[in-house]
UniProtKB/TrEMBL annotation:
The keyword Glycosyltransferase applies. SUPFAM superfamilies: UDP-Glycosyltransferase/glycogen phosphorylase. This is Glycosyltransferase. Pathway: Pigment biosynthesis; anthocyanin biosynthesis. PANTHER family: GLYCOSYLTRANSFERASE (PTHR48047), SCOPOLETIN GLUCOSYLTRANSFERASE-LIKE (PTHR48047:SF45). Gene3D superfamilies: Glycogen Phosphorylase B (3.40.50.2000). GO terms for molecular function: anthocyanidin 3-O-glucosyltransferase activity. Pfam families: UDPGT. InterPro entries: UDP_glucos_trans (IPR002213), UDP_glycos_trans_CS (IPR035595). Keywords: Glycosyltransferase, Transferase.
């Protein structure tokens, strides 16, 4: 029910189908529409893949009609109803499973009851959370050791105990539910999610071994989870049509976008996008516009439609004459950009990102270094992986969660400084070289003989063996 989860799950289903597995994607009408064309194309190519639709109970849960995706949530007050609606999907899903009789159910973390649903049918449930091993390890340590409870202030850094590297965070950078002292609906849901991860057959990770080896080992050995890492999943989008139509209808014609990039020197364009969920206030967007203009860099900047509707129209915050002055230098995409297509272009040399895991991995896969600007969720953890462990990014200096904040979090001067450091400083070449190496590793991992390719083979073989032994048991 969110692009950041739906997109990798679609990629994953396509990857399974390419391995000769019959893949059925279960989704709701509006979410299914986001991938129906891609799936239809795969079917025409002969893959055994399809979509099954179940209704999303928006009205029954007290949500506006058509509110089926977290990107349509405009205020935190709507979240309890959204989660209620998600919970109501259990019964129709169980009914569908009864009809389809799959060999295995891969379900997103937001469906903790899916483990029970799979158990009823005697099939394994694989858990997908859509984030990094790194973030999973950080959160596990925080829950286990609660280092944030032993500091005197919200801004005092503490070390996250027991990790392969020394990782420092502050209370301001943690999700609210981790700091909650009393139980509420959300903390209960997060507990159910943790429980269902533990009780599931195993975990599928959108990562690759060479990216965060110490953390995938920690997750398996220290945390005792069974996991398969089969990413980067975005790499299953080989051609332009795949990349351009991934996850949504693009607000810019892909050919126009590529023509614009074709006129730019290698590594000269900064791509700015804060994912599919987060809204920045007009005041913050203005600081970004001012910084971009002052930086003198070429840029493609994605401004979400939600950001516009929420803060009236662009005239209220965009500096007068900005688009005219930036003609040829900067391109604003109002709405949805073909992100992977853009990142993969050789003219793109930097990515200002909110550190959502998909974006992070897509940046890594494209070999593009990053300006990190985490906003919420587990993004402050992912930022540490980018800047402190992999050393392929420069932090813009965000200090606290700001998903629904109206205030300016980062000033023009700091944004400009981070851009200059990433795109044109003594460090640039070093960072770029490291990013390039990771890009090569990512590609090798998904090719035959690579680590992710092998993990997917092992998973499919294990599931086939399970199915065979089940059938044999039935015969006897
Ligand atoms: N995305 C895109 N175009 C946009 C915005 C987002 O293609 O204009 C895709 C992006 O490539 C990524 C996903 O949406 O695959 C966002 O997931 P991520 O985990 O980065 O962040 P979230 O949206 O969940 O915060």
């Amino acid at each position: 029910m969110a692009h950041g989860h739906l997109i990798p799950i679609i990629d994953m289903a396509r990857l399974f189908a390419r391995r000769g597995v019959k893949a059925t994607i279960v989704s709701t009408p509006l979410n299914a529409a986001l991938c129906s064309k891609t799936i239809e194309r795969d079917r025409q190519l002969g893959l055994d893949i399809s979509i099954q639709i179940i209704k999303f109970p928006s009205a029954e849960a007290g949500l506006p009609e058509g509110c089926e995706n977290i990107s349509a949530i405009t205020s935190p007050d709507m979240l309890p109803n959204f989660f209620k609606a998600i919970g109501m999907l259990q019964q129709p899903l169980e009914q569908l499973l009864e009809e389809c009789h799959p060999s295995c159910l891969v379900a997103d973390m937001m469906f903790p009851w899916a483990t029970e649903a799979a158990n009823k049918l005697g099939i394994p449930r694989l858990f997908f959370n859509g984030t990094s091993f790194f973030a999973m390890c950080v959160f596990d340590s925080l829950k286990r050791h609660e280092p944030h409870k032993r500091v005197d202030s919200d801004s005092e850094p503490f070390t996250v105990p027991g990790l392969p590297d020394q990782i420092k965070l502050t209370r301001l950078q943690l999700p609210t539910y981790l700091k909650e002292t009393t139980e509420n609906e959300f903390t209960k849901l997060m507990d159910q999610i943790s429980q269902s991860e533990l009780r599931s057959y195993g975990v599928i990770m959108n990562s690759f071994n060479e990216l965060e080896p110490a953390y995938s080992e920690h997750y398996r050995k220290e945390m005792g989870r069974k996991a398969w890492q089969i990413g980067p999943l975005s790499l299953c989008n080989g051609d332009m049509e795949d990349k351009a139509g991934r996850g949504n209808v693009s607000s810019i014609d892909e050919h126009e976008c590529l023509r614009w990039l074709a006129n730019k020197k290698d590594n000269s364009v900064l791509y700015i996008c804060f994912g599919s969920v987060f809204n920045l206030p007009g005041t913050q967007l203005l600081e970004i516009a001012l910084a971009l203009e002052a930086s003198g860099q070429n840029f493609i900047w994605v401004v979400r439609k939600g950001e516009l509707t929420k803060h009236a129209d662009k005239e209220e915050w965009l500096p007068e004459g900005f688009e005219k002055r930036m003609e040829g230098k900067g391109l604003i995409v109002w709405g949805w950009a073909p992100q992977v297509l853009i990142l993969d272009h050789k003219a793109v040399g930097g990515f200002m990102t909110h550190c959502g895991w998909n974006s992070t991995l897509e940046g890594v896969t494209a070999g593009v270094p990053m300006v990190t600007w985490p906003l919420g969720a587990e993004q402050f953890g992912n930022e540490k992986l980018i800047t402190d462990v992999l050393k392929i990014g420069i932090g813009v200096g965000t200090q606290e969660w700001s998903r629904y904040e109206k205030k300016i979090i980062v000033r023009k001067e700091d944004i400009e400084k981070a851009i200059a450091q990433l795109m044109a400083s003594d460090e640039t070449e070093e960072i770029r070289n490291r990013a390039r190496e990771l890009k090569e590793m990512a590609r090798r991992a998904t090719e035959e003989g690579g680590s992710s390719f092998a993990d997917l083979t092992a998973l499919v073989e294990e599931l086939r063996a399970l199915e065979t032994s089940k059938r044999e048991r039935k015969v006897h």
